[in-house]
Protein: Parvalbumin
Amino acid sequence: MAMTDVLSAEDIKKAVGAFSAAESFNYKKFFEMVGLKKKSPEDVKKVFHILDKDRSGFIEEEELKFVLKGFTPDGRDLSDKETKALLAAGDKDGDGKIGADGM
Structure:
């Protein structure tokens, strides 16, 4: 399954482009721009599974660094600071990873 099976390619392009500058990533705005906030819990889980590259059932810090590339291959890597901020926002139980319920 591709990200464009769930989200609009145009929305993805605009959202990734909006945060192309280093240290500019804002996960709340990004998820809103790609249309994730309007999606059903089922669709959000589909996106989660696409981003869960190692199929562990969790998105770990190493995977989060490349989250924009999960939406489009030309997305940039997140900085360590951006990655840690995203992890802190989604890690509900403090185990250092995000479960499907954290998205």
